[in-house]
Amino acid sequence: MAEVSAKNPTLETVAAVAGVSKSTVSRVINNLPHVRQDIREAVERAIAQTGYVPNQAARSLVTRRTGAVALVVQEPDTTVFTDPYLSALIHAIADELDRTDVQLVVIMARSQREQARLDRFLRAGHVDGVLLTSTHGAGMLGGLTVPVVYGGRPLRVAEDTMWVDADNVGGARLAVEHLRERGRERIAMIAGPQDMAVSIDRQSGYRDALDPNSRPVIAYGDFSVRSGEQAMRQLLAWEPELDAVFVSSDLMALGALEALRANGRRVPEDVAVVGFDDVEQAGLADPPLTTVRQPIDEQGRRMVGMLLDAIAGNPGERAVTLPTSVIARQSS
């Protein structure tokens, strides 16, 4: 290898150091076939020695790849930064992509204006694929030429839809069965937004596990603490004798605990409470919150793996449902 120094190394610099042609360097950088292993290793050493950074724009012309994926969250900024489930999922996705050379672009889009801007951005070819979470309604992406993986099953599932979800029906069923095993008879529910499959699935599991002679009693929130508090107050007004409540998210369950405390109801002596997600705040609640654990880290990893496989043209599983389990604490 030649000794060549340059303040701003170029493709020519790498070629000179490695003792090969520019076209060979380009083939190695773009991971194209028909390059001998010893030549490939020489070029990689020259890149490390010179500190050369490939021009992504030029590289994209060859590979038709941008080296970036978008994580789209269909929630306002305030929700993204305060919801522990979303924060944990974003962290898991970022950690998994950190093992690769793929850049993550996080985009929050809820308003029509933001969605229109997002649509233009994605159709302009700025990313190789999309991760989409917290989907309301049928989602907002359609007709894209890049792969899309949903975090959570969307309401409408086409034949080629890819998604990774937790077993929300089964988890909710486990929560209600847990309460019934502890002798609770009047079990109410605080459900999430009805334009999200996750909310509908958890409500379905609740109904499935109730005693056949019991009447479902359901109030609704938006997965925030305040909405959980308001929904709990509604339930107490509708069903003063309730002795348990299954809450569709841990944040709403924290609000429910506040409402019960304000109304002089002891937890769990008077009313048992079970949440869903098992975020960090659940174990720190007063009393510590029994909840349904969903594997958020694994969901993030599986979403990334599914998307990268699709980008590479090697799609595997298109629909993954991860198991859930009850984590029993003092609130039940």
Brief descriptors of the model:
single chain; 332 residues; alpha/beta; 434 Repressor (Amino-terminal Domain); Rossmann fold; 3 domains; 6-stranded parallel sheet; 6-stranded mixed sheet; 12 strands
**Whole-number count of domains:** 3
Mean pLDDT: 87
**H and E order:** HHHHEHHEHEEEHEHEHEHEHEHEE
Estimate the global geometry from the Cα principal axes. Answer: elongated
Class of the largest domain in CATH?
Alpha Beta
> How many distinct beta strands?
12
- Give the structural class: alpha/beta
Assembly of the depicted chains: single chain
Q: Major beta sheet, specifics?
A: 6 strands, parallel
Biggest sheet strand order reads 2-1-3-4-5-11
What is the gyration radius calculated from CA atoms? 25 Å
CATH topology of the largest domain: Rossmann fold
Number of helices: 13
What's the CATH architecture of the largest domain? 3-Layer(aba) Sandwich
Tell me the distance between the termini. 69 Å
Tell me the fraction of residues in β-strands, as a range.
15-25%
Helix content: 40-55%
The residue ranges in which pLDDT falls below 50 over 5 or more consecutive positions are none
Describe the structure in your own words.
It is a single chain. The chain has 332 residues and is of the alpha/beta class. It has three domains: 11-63, 434 Repressor (Amino-terminal Domain); 68-166 and 297-322, Response regulator (Rossmann fold), CATH 3.40.50; 168-295, Rossmann fold (3-Layer(aba) Sandwich). 44% of the residues lie in helices and 17% in strands. It has 13 helices and twelve strands. It has helices at residues 11-18, 22-29, 37-50, 56-63, 77-82, 84-97, 112-123, 168-181, 197-209, 225-238, 250-262, 280-284, 296-311, and strands spanning 68-73, 103-108, 129-133, 148-151, 162-166, 187-191, 218-220, 244-247, 272-277, 290-293, 319-322, 325-327. A six-stranded parallel β-sheet has the order 2-1-3-4-5-11, covered by helices on one side. Strands 7-6-8-9-10-12 form a six-stranded mixed β-sheet, with helices on both faces. Strand 9, helix 12 (280-284) and strand 10 (290-293) form a beta-alpha-beta unit. Helix 1 (11-18) crosses helix 3 (37-50). The longest helix is centred in the C-terminal third of the chain and has 16 residues, at 296-311. GO terms for molecular function: DNA-binding transcription factor activity; transcription cis-regulatory region binding. Keywords: DNA-binding, Transcription, Transcription regulation. This is DNA-binding transcriptional regulator, LacI/PurR family.
